[in-house]
Amino acid sequence: METVLSIEDLHKEYSGGWRKPPRTALAGLNLVVPRGKTIGLLGPNGAGKTTTLKCIMGLIRPQAGKIDLFGGEVTGAGVRKSIGFLPEQPYFDLYLTPRKLLAYYGRLSGMHEADIAARTAFLLNLVGMGEEADLSMDKYSKGMLQRIGLAQALISQPEFLVLDEPSSGLDPLGKLQVRDLLLGLKGGGTTILLSSHQLSEIEEICDGVAIIHKGANIASGGLDELLRPREEYEISLEKSPPPAAVELPASASWADPAQTRLLVNKGELNEALRSLLERGALVAEVRQRRMTLEEYFVEQVGSEGWEVGE
After folding, report:
1. Distance between CA atoms of 35 and 160, rounded to whole angstroms?
2. Which of 99, 114, 142, 260 is buried most, with the most CB atoms less than 10 Å from its CB?
3. Which range among 16-25, 45-54, 131-140, 240-249 shows the weakest confidence by mean pLDDT?
4. CA distance 155 to 302
5. Using the 8-state DSSP alphabet, how is residue 173 labeled?
6. What share of the chain is helix, strand, coil (3-state, %, to 5)?
7. 32, 294 contact by CB (below 8 A)
8. pLDDT confidence of 30, banded at 50, 70, 90?
9. 3 state DSSP class of 187
10. DSSP secondary-structure letter at 36?
């Protein structure tokens, strides 16, 4: 499979200051992002996620290791023209309006003026900021600035998106909008590397994950490969039986107040199905549940992983 990003044995240390030892941020990191895939970059605070993204973008230089983008080793800024980048805390000249800001980034990307105007209008509407397009950004909240940051990352229609906590500062509706936006980009073939602490967001959006701990990749792969099946099944109902009409096995429990999703252990699955069907329920789907990404993350990192300082 063709890769957009390949990182081999990346090392990075930061100076510890006067008479203090250097601090290791990356200790032999390896990472591969295949073309057209969305990969989640996970890890506790201080694991090296943001350092990795900054190395990819050329904002800091590693002491050792190799970074290949689009099949070739990074040698300058030219190769990054096909990359959109959203840092964790985007900083803009707040006296500008979003329209002027995106026009500036469009010119930096080599876009024609006519294309910039059309693309700017499209993106501002896409991120829900069309009505505030001509308002200076010093009047914006953190969540509004985050939306503009996402728009600037998309201005040149990049092949590869590198996003550091794209949902940071957003309200629940904004997070849902960002999720839908990323799913749309993924469906269109954009390659995405997404760093986030929102594990449910990663599990819903990403094809695979890489977990970084103490500067190294300790686990990586597709979600279907990493998240083991449980000895538990979920029965989804198209039509529920009358309330209190069904005698269910001991392990069975309803997953929702409307009683349309029933959880039951593998050994009592047939008994639960028989009871439901005898009482007039219509079964839409039966599927085996798997461990959550949160459970897998804690299993890999352990409780001590949360004690690592940035």
Report:
1. 8
2. 99
3. 240-249
4. 39
5. H
6. 35, 30, 35
7. no
8. very high
9. helix
10. T
